[in-house]
Specification:
The structure is a single chain. The protein is built from 7 helices and 6 strands, in the order ααββαββαβαβαα. Strands 1-2-4-3 form a 4-stranded antiparallel beta sheet, covered by helices on one side. It has about 220 residues and is an alpha+beta fold. β3 (about 85-90) and β4 form a beta hairpin.
Length: about 220
């Protein structure tokens, strides 16, 4: 079923599939919307999110963040795909949560380059952005979308996917070699902000709501 919301997935013809729109989703609604998205896009989203995750010695994969709500969405996606996962708090005094899974398709060595120009590529970038991308929390602040990583190669892949969908990006650069010579980032150019929100969007509860506010949904 199609959706007019601007934060949904997009197919190669440019029409949107059902999206995870809205600031708050009930578990029932979330599960229903996930079922309406193709499995390859859900898997690509998780591969993107894993760029900020790790592989344990036991072979499981872990993704951590302070916003547990997003991890619950990851767990719901894994459930739809038929894979086990569990969420736990890391440390008694930390507001930091981890989702861990045994899903065998996940790989920290995933090659995203073949996804350029495809709907799965957009899903991959969405997961990448939700895990580690940046935008202002203050709705009155000047808008920006930033991608940052120590793995420059993965940033080049993301930038290539965005450019393949007509989203213009700045150059990849190191903001301070003295502070961290291995830290890289790039920004989506201002003229492509609206397109980024429309065709990439976000499934992260906070970022999705911020985009909805910017798009005046």
């Amino acid at each position: 079923m199609a959706s007019d919301k601007p934060v949904g997935a997009v197919n190669q013809q440019g029409s949107r599939t059902r999206s995870l729109e809205g600031a708050i989703l009930t578990p029932q609604r979330l599960h229903a919307e996930l079922l309406a998205i193709d499995e390859t896009s859900l898997e690509a989203y998780l591969q993107g999110a894993l760029r900020d995750g790790t592989r344990s010695r036991s072979g499981t994969h872990r993704i951590g963040q302070s916003d547990r709500r997003w991890l619950e969405i990851l767990a719901a996606i894994l459930d739809v795909l038929g894979h086990r996962s569990w969420i736990y708090r890391e440390g008694r005094d930390r507001e930091y949560w981890v989702v861990e899974t045994t899903a065998p398709f996940l790989s920290t060595q995933f090659d995203a380059r073949p996804l350029a120009g495809s709907p799965q590529g957009l899903a991959y970038v969405r997961g990448y952005f939700d895990a580690d991308g940046g935008m202002p929390r203050n709705p009155d602040a000047r808008l920006y979308f930033q991608m940052s990583q120590k793995d420059r190669g993965s940033l080049e892949d993301v930038r290539g996917i965005l450019e393949s969908h007509g989203i213009s990006c700045g150059r990849i650069h190191n903001p301070s070699v003295r502070v961290d010579p291995r830290y890289w980032r790039f920004f989506v150019r201002t003229r492509s902000h609206e397109r980024f929100m429309s065709v990439v969007g976000s499934w992260h509860p906070r970022k999705r709501q911020q985009m909805n506010t910017r798009m005046k949904i």
